[in-house]
Amino acid sequence: MHSKHTSRALTLLVSAALALGTFPVSALATPSSELQAQVNEAYSTLTQYANELESASNELYQLQQDLESTQHEIAQTEDDIAELEVKLEEGQEKLSERLAESYKQDTSSSPLSVIVGASDFEELVTRFYYANRMIDYDSELVEEVKSTREELQQRREDLAEQEAEQQQLVEEQEQKTAEIQAKVSEQQAYYEGLDSELQQQLAEEEARRAAEEAARQEAEQADREEQGNNGDSNADNSGGNSNGGGSSNNNDPSNTDSGNAPSSVVDIALAQVGKGYVFATAGPNTFDCSGLVTYCYGQMGISITHSSQAQYNIVAGKGHLVYSTSYLSPGDLVFWGHGGSGSAIYHVGIYIGGGQYVHASSPGVGVVVSTLYTGGNFAGGGSPV
User: Fold this and answer.
1) Residue 22, class by beta-carbon neighbours within 10 Å (0-12 exposed, 13-18 middle, 19+ buried)?
2) What is the per-residue pLDDT for 260?
3) Closest listed residue to residue 166, CA positions, set 77, 58, 57, 64
4) What's the pTM value of the predicted model, to 2 decimals?
5) Using an 8 Å Cβ cutoff, are 321 and 337 in contact?
6) Which phi and psi (to 5°) does residue 261 adopt?
């Protein structure tokens, strides 16, 4: 018995060593958990900068609107002044004409005619009053136009000062907005670089894990074959183990049957790419991660609860959970849970084949196609039908 266990352990050790040798690990590589924390922090900072940019852009827009309003008012004031200039010129000409006429002796409105034509002193006073009243009226009109013009000119000067101040505010806000935009662009590049590095590292970890799993299964198969050659008693023991393994186990790590997901759900999922992420929504314009699954399967006439944990439980309950991407089929759901736990699911997507999946990622990112990485918190995948 001791020699059998020794042989099995040796087989496992050698196979695992060969598998790991295929995927060298740099001694300087950052652990995926630490790298994931850096990615999360970078994304948090990116979101903060994006919110600052949104606020700065809104403030810039309002300042630009205020400046445009002032400029429009200046233009209107200029038109009003030009119109008054015309009225003033006309009024001054009319007043000049009336004054000239009042001194012509052949007109009834001249001072001489007023005096000669008067029958008594009262009529004389009356005639003088009305003759001069016409001139006074014209003079008042001219002065009124002059006063209004002066007020408008002062208004124009005040508006010009206001325009200059607003222009300065706009320029300062434009610079501030540009600086924040630069921060967003720089942080976006930093985040994408870290995320790419993380995905590559997680893919390498998954490849190593798959190689280790294959080596383990190969060693177990070799051990079973060795035990099968040791007589009926060992065969009986093996049969007992087989019966135990045949009991229902929805989380069987060796399961290779992911169910019968409708592959056409992939086209529906891809059609949502580019739409926004809003928590607790399930389409048709915005989604969260489980809402996207609910919507896409709903379009196929398949009702699925809007909850990533519930969706995981459905797949697990049907015995369709697989843990290797080689057993996933297009249309299968893929899950992530804290620590890889099936009882702490926090994200779900739809596998589309070729090592990729569609998912409603997060606010500011929306529905995207991503490379499937199964290291770290990956909790398996499979069909809900």
Assistant:
1) exposed
2) 93
3) 64
4) 0.42
5) no
6) -65, 140
